[in-house]
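Hi there,

I know you've been waiting on this one. I reran it after we fixed the sequence typo, so this is the corrected version. Both the input and the resulting structure follow.
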Amino acid sequence: MTDKAKHIVALADDDVDDREIFVDVCSGIETEIEVFLFKNGQELMDYLNTKDAVIPSILFLDINMPIKDGFDCLAEIRSKTALNELCIIVYSTSISSSDVTKAKQLGADGFLQKPSSYGKLKTAVQKILDTD
């Protein structure tokens, strides 16, 4: 029996279908993954700001969400010393170079355009987990 590294991964995305696909992809990856889901940026920040929050190793963060968008979350997270180690991958349908630049300026560790297929998403998530 081999020991599998356990990753705690969070996804903040307002699209229910995208959240379901993401969870399905994570369950199909060889690595043991626990996924925390958030429906919008405010829900994510409320959780991260709780005293006993389990901080994920990687956060996949959508840009366009109601209440609090991904850029606002990114700026708030990077302003908190306690969250400095959190790896943040902006995860968006956007292909705008200005969005990529803004994400990097705000402290994102990477930018992943939402892949067009399940297989591409699985490959991308596996690659990110392997390099974390």
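Quick highlight: The mean pLDDT is 89.

Best,
R. S.
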